[in-house]
Each structure stands twice: as structure tokens, then as C-alpha cells.
Design a protein that fits this description.
The structure is a single chain. This protein is mostly helical and about 80 residues long. The protein contains four helices and no strands. It has one domain. About 75% of the residues lie in helices and about 0% in strands. It is elongated.
Length: about 80
């Protein structure tokens, strides 16, 4: 437990379960979108899929994670065929 307090004093905290669930959910959606875009030769879907898989690494706020994820999923819906 002392190590956890040391990490918290450095500003490092563990993500919430909601954040972990959202990161896994949007990464899986991104993987499916990438596979679909690659198979169907839809470049926007492929790049949106890559973005969905990688953006949780850059965002630390849970609300922002869900907001950006929903926006990217809307982009996938827009470019579907």
C-alpha cells in the first residue's frame, strides 16, 4: 500500500472501471471498423478505426473518453456503406 501512496503523491492514479470499460469498448469498435474498412477498401472507416483503437491512450478524463468515442462512432456511421 505504501507504493500506491507514493504513486498518488506523484500524480499517478489508477483509472476508474468506467474508463477501462469505455477504453475496451471503443477499442473493439475500432478494431471491427478497421477490419471492415480494410476489407471494403473504405479509407475513412479504416482510419477512424485506427483512431478509435489508439485515442484512449491520449485521453485521461472519462467523460472526454466517452464524448470523443461517441463522436468517432458517429463518424463511422456517417462513412458507412
Amino acid at each position: 500500500m505504501d507504493e500506491l501512496k507514493t504513486l498518488e503523491s506523484l500524480g499517478l492514479t489508477l483509472p476508474s472501471p468506467a474508463y477501462i470499460f469505455g477504453a475496451i469498448l471503443f477499442s473493439l469498435i475500432g478494431w471491427v471498423a478497421y477490419r471492415h474498412g480494410k476489407k471494403s477498401s473504405l479509407t475513412p472507416c479504416k482510419w477512424l478505426g485506427i483512431t478509435l483503437m489508439l485515442y484512449p491512450y491520449a485521453i485521461t478524463d472519462t467523460r472526454l473518453l466517452y464524448g470523443v468515442g461517441v463522436a468517432l462512432c458517429f463518424g463511422l456511421y456517417w462513412y458507412r456503406k
